[in-house]
Design brief:
The chain is mainly β. The protein has one domain: Beta Barrel (Porin). The chain contains 4 helices and 22 strands. Strand 8 and strand 9 form a beta hairpin. The relative contact order is 0.13.
């Protein structure tokens, strides 16, 4: 790995010709995880500190096939060193469907074979592989690409294809999905965006489609959308504008569970999610925001949290917060021209509990960054229930009190 870093530092920032360009990055995330008592599978109620080192090497290319046709491709190689106890749990795998909406894919794990337990793994991800075609009246994109919507800063109700969890360390590149997408410009800052997203084996019950319109009226960006995903139907909207120098956004979506399935609409598992917020940049170099989120699929009673996981919102709708009402404040401050500090948090108002996310980033040289920070869960932990003598079942007493803590140091080189 040291040789890899030396090679990257010695590379030019980017290779570029008349018809191609090559770039990418190397990232290292060294992580310490401190799970709360009774959260980890096994007889030991307190597993103690565990560690993980994740390396990401990304190669991104673009080839100009003709004046109107480009091919984009990005491949990630991901060596991981981790505590063997982490290898035996799904706690760190947010998305049980793997990379989500992909009809066909490479094997995710290169080493070891056959689900062998190991403290060293090599994973891979073909994250982009698509053609972009420019026509006189529209642009067409076909293949593995990033598709995401929503103006909310913390939780996007309309982003159901490949959202990141709040405590994801690397959120720079959206996970690629397999899709056919067409984008029509409509007047000043308007657009019609439609497409089909292919799921596992191209089956309709695993796939999605979308139609989104965007316009600009009275200094306000307004968009509405219809999304069908895994036989559910979503109607959503998004609005952004400036109010007295502050940025304002409101985003919402209602999901009709099973509306596109043979069994029909299930009102009991249908739900609304909405986010509203403000942000403001001060002359001192401080940027701040605050966002409120409502999640009808969630509950204010922690005893209900485990039972929620089988509902449509969580099994198919990419919802991962378990409560109903959330408040998410945050700010950043440029300490020096090369050092920036960040402090964010998300608060479950029903538990109550919070997940704090402080961090600091140092721009060592051009395209080289060093960061450190954490995600710290504050709230009541797990409560035992007397049922099984060897491994007592437990229930969370709060959402973020059951998250545990993550502390990290990251090193990034872009080329």
């Amino acid at each position: 790995m040291i040789i890899m870093i030396i090679m990257l530092i010695g590379c030019p920032p980017i290779l570029k010709g008349d018809w191609y360009s090559i770039g990418g990055y190397y990232k290292n995330f060294s992580t310490v995880l401190d799970f709360p008592e009774h959260s980890f599978p096994g007889p030991d109620p307190d597993p103690g500190l565990m560690g993980m080192v994740t390396n990401r090497l990304r190669l991104a290319t673009r080839f100009e096939i003709s004046e109107k046709v480009d091919f984009h491709c990005s491949y990630n190689l991901i060596p991981v060193i981790l505590d063997k106890q982490l290898d035996r749990t799904a706690l760190l795998d947010f998305n049980p469907r793997g990379y989500g909406y992909r009809a066909l894919d490479l094997e995710r794990e290169l080493y070891p074979d056959d689900d062998e337990e190991s403290s060293f793994k090599i994973n891979q991800n073909l994250d982009r592989a698509y053609l972009s075609l420019s026509f006189p009246k529209f642009d067409l994109y076909f293949g593995r690409q990033a598709i995401a919507w929503g103006s909310a800063h913390v939780i996007n109700p309309t982003d159901v294809l490949a959202p990141f969890p709040y405590n994801e360390l690397d959120i720079e590149n959206r996970i690629g999905v397999d899709a056919l997408r067409i984008r029509y410009p409509l007047g000043f800052m308007g657009e019609l965006d439609l497409g089909y997203v292919f799921g596992d084996d191209f089956k309709f019950e695993n796939s999605a489609f979308f139609l989104r319109g965007k316009t600009y009226i009275e200094r306000t960006d307004i968009s509405g959308m219809v999304i069908g995903f895994r036989e559910n139907l979503l109607l959503g909207f998004d609005l952004t504008r400036y109010i007295g120098g502050a940025g304002f956004w409101v985003e919402g979506a209602y999901v009709f569970s099973g509306a596109l399935s043979h069994d029909g609409f299930d009102e009991d598992e249908s739900y609304f999610r909405g986010s509203v917020g403000l942000d403001y940049s001060f002359r001192s170099g401080t940027y701040s925001f605050i966002e409120y989120h409502y999640n009808q699929a969630g509950s204010n009673d922690p005893d209900d949290y485990y039972s929620l996981l089988n509902q449509t919102a969580y099994s198919e709708g990419s919802v991962y917060f378990l409560g109903e009402h959330y408040l998410a404040p945050g700010f950043s401050y440029q300490i020096t021209p090369l050092i920036t500090g960040y402090a964010e948090a998300i608060i479950n108002l029903g538990d109550p509990s919070l997940l704090a996310a402080p961090s600091v980033e140092y721009n060592i040289e051009e395209n080289i960054y060093l960061s450190a920070g954490g995600f710290i869960g504050i709230g009541e932990g797990f409560r035992e229930r007397e049922a099984i003598p060897i491994v007592p079942p437990v229930v969370p007493q709060s959402e973020f009190g059951s998250y545990g803590d993550i502390y990290f140091v990251s090193f990034k080189i872009y080329y």
